Amino acid sequence: MRMKKAKHLKPVPIMLDKKRTLVYDFNSFIRLKEKTQSTNMVEAVGTLKKSIVTDGDLGSLRTLLWAGLIHEDKDLEEETVGSMIVIDKLPEIMAAMTKAFNRTAGVGKWK
C-alpha cells in the first residue's frame, strides 16, 4: 500500500532491486523509534548509526535503509530490503542514505 509522499522532503534516488527513492520523514523516525524500542528518535537513530559506523552492523544498516524506503510501501519488510542490497554497492547505498538524512529537517548533519 502506497503512502502519501512527504512533499517538503526531496527524495534521494537509489538503485537497489530497481530504481527507488529514500525519504526520512516523520513516519520513518516513528517506525525506527518503535523498532529499536528507544525513548526518542534521536536515541534510535544515534544507536543505529553508532552500530553501523563503529561495529559494521549490517542489520542496523538494513534497518535504516528500510526506514528510508517505507514512504513507498508502508508494508515493506526489512527482510525484503535485505534482499535488495548488493554488498559491493554499500558505498553508494551509504552515500544515498547520508544525502537523504541531510535533507531531513531538524535532524542535523549525518556524518
List the helices and strands and how they pair.
Layout: E1 12-15, E2 19-22, H1 26-36, H2 41-55, H3 58-69, H4 78-84, H5 90-102
Antiparallel strand pairs: 1-2
Helix pairs in contact: 1-2, 1-3, 2-3, 3-4, 3-5
Largest sheet: 2 strands, antiparallel
Number of helical stretches of at least 4 residues: 5
Strand order of the largest sheet: 1-2
Radius of gyration of CA atoms, rounded to a whole number: 13 Å
User: How many domain modules?
Assistant: 1
Shape: globular
Q: Give the proportion of residues in helices.
A: 40-55%
Following the backbone from N to C, one meets helices and strands in this order, namely EEHHHHH
CA distance, first residue to last residue: 32 Å
Which percent band covers the strand fraction? 5-15%
Overall mean pLDDT: 83
Number of DSSP E strands: 2
Low-confidence segments: none
